[in-house]
Amino acid sequence: MTSTLSTAAYLGAAILFILSLGGLSNPETSRRGNLFGMVGMAIAVLATVLGPQVEPKGIAWIVGAMAVGGTIGLYAARVVKMTQMPELVALMHSLVGLAAMLVGFANFIDPAATAHFKGAERTIHQAEIYIGVLIGAVTFSGSVIAFGKLSAKISGKPVLLPGRHWINLAGLVAVIWLCTRFVDAPTVGTGMLPLVIMTAIALAFGVHMVMAIGGADMPVVVSMLNSYSGWAAAATGFMLSNDLLIVTGALVGSSGAILSYIMCRAMNRNFLSVIAGGFGTEGGKPAAAGAAGEPQGEVSPISAPETAELLRSARNVIIVPGYGMAVAQAQHTVYEITRLLREKGVNVRFGIHPVAGRMPGHMNVLLAEAKVPYDIVMEMDEINADFPDTDVAMVIGANDIVNPAAQEDPSSPIAGMPVLEVWKGKTSVVMKRSMASGYAGVDNPLFYKDNNRMLFGDAKKMLDEVLVALKA
Description:
Mean pLDDT: 84
Distance between the termini: 67 Å
Shape: elongated
Largest sheet: 6 strands, parallel
Helix content: 55-70%
């Protein structure tokens, strides 16, 4: 393939990637967006493998590596559950960072890659290598820690070291000083030491940064690392003079940054406060007692048949799914209940909080998998005003995103956070295994509201019982 044809293929792939992002912005066009992305990636890979920069003797190595990677990817796609998607995404981000690191080192030690750079061009190229390895290292180690937290292999509680901000500042100063040493290094041997030291600092910073971030901010961390992986890819594109990699990395980096901003706004947080860490503790703790050591109020339990009767007699129902629904894999039963109620003339809709679950869009994907119609899945801003006219608001495994303390308690850690106002409905039913607090570790006064009922038990089991009662 000639250089001109390769460039044209890259341009076509870049256009398809942009169309893919546009398609993914709407559930109804997301399948087409995915198709555009897959076709664009196939074109990009073929144009690279068959392009002028790859010698014939290297094709076998590339095809072999693609076969290994493709086999692992197919296996993961078949065995990974939807509830494991957040940690899988974090793990994939780590691979992007690792690739950027390895490409940076390989590019630096390859004489053929740097021999034609002289003067200012060489300085710029050295800076590209340095920045690419830096971003890649932070992305790699940070994503590995995020994977550990999301998969519960590492505690979700923030680890805050004394003087952590001074540690970060010292690391930044060291990285800048090492950059000057690296760029001015006359040989590969003299430049390798500052590059290796910087990589170690960047790896340590990635670990330190994500360990300091609490469970409540993990959805933001996922989108933030997505942005980092994009910028790492863009830096790799500059290293290799690959225009498509630059464009693709910039698209991923900027979209991830925008998504991080949206997530922060949905939590009434700013990006710097997320990076500073400290919000959110381990989920699963019992709700705390009041100031006098007494429970905050009386809870009103409800049975599955009673819940079914409430739903049967309702005209308007809003279902709010959370991570508990994902863990119980109850989305298909939710769909069956929704279908049955709609056949009986009940207006059923879903309210989705931007940070529901452990990653952006987690609940939307689960509901789409269960064939829930797109047009009844509403975002928080679209549906919040309808709760006062709702007969039953059913919360399935959600906690922090329906916590009235965000509006009623100025001293709460989540004060000001936009939440789904389920307590404004005629009756709210919260499905939980226990009275444990949510992933943020913040107590929820919703449980004690006069119009709230608690349906305790595994979400799948309880919903199956509700479905049986509805069919009776």
